[in-house]
Automatic annotation (TrEMBL):
It comes from Photobacterium iliopiscarium. It holds the Pfam family TraU. The lineage of its organism: Bacteria, Pseudomonadati, Pseudomonadota, Gammaproteobacteria, Vibrionales. This is Conjugal transfer protein TraU.
Length: 180
């Protein structure tokens, strides 16, 4: 592919005032009113059940859902879902990726015809094109999980009680390319 973007591994949420403030984030994401409520979250049950098998892809049409992790909204680093530290960490990683898509920082390569080889902005996260892999505290190099997959099937033994809730993930993205 002819990629015009540069390789970048860093996004400092500490410098982003919208990441830690739900009310301030509302300015950039007013749709939280539609999707950040219990009624809209009922639709997420279907995705949660589908992705709980561990190998099924999430439902891209339910863009406000993050499968078994919870809601994509608000697009901040705050969560009320605190079942396990690993589940919260996965949810934060998925939300951050959605936020970067929403702000036009991460672009998409999915397209039709001539657009296949060129990247374009996509403000809605294409969840089915992403996988994550645990790299820190206790790495899991043998498995990549689709977005929304429940952490209950693999998180046992990966939480280190000494170092706390500091996890690292490698995120993989499928890209459509044409060999020229």
């Amino acid at each position: 592919c002819m990629s015009l973007d540069n390789f970048d591994i860093g996004y400092l949420t500490e410098l982003d005032p919208f990441w830690d403030d739900d009310e301030l984030s509302f300015i950039l994401n007013p749709e939280v009113i539609l999707f950040g409520n219990p009624i809209a979250q009922l639709a997420c049950v279907a995705e949660s059940v589908k992705t709980s098998a561990g190998s099924s892809l999430p439902i891209d049409a339910l863009f406000w859902c993050m499968g078994s992790q919870g809601s994509a909204y608000p697009l901040t680093g705050n969560t009320t879902y605190r079942d396990t530290p690993m589940q919260s960490a996965v949810l934060m990683a998925e939300r951050l990726n959605y936020k970067l898509h929403r702000q036009g920082i991460v672009w998409e390569s999915l397209g039709t015809d001539g657009a296949v080889c060129y990247q374009h902005p996509m403000p809605i996260l294409p969840k089915s094109r992403y996988r994550y892999q645990l790299s820190n505290v206790i790495p899991n190099a043998t498995n990549c999980y689709p977005y929304g997959t429940t952490t209950a099937i693999w998180e046992s033994g990966h939480d280190n009680p000494v170092t706390g809730d500091n996890f690292g993930f490698v995120q993989w993205r499928k890209r459509n390319c044409v060999f020229l």
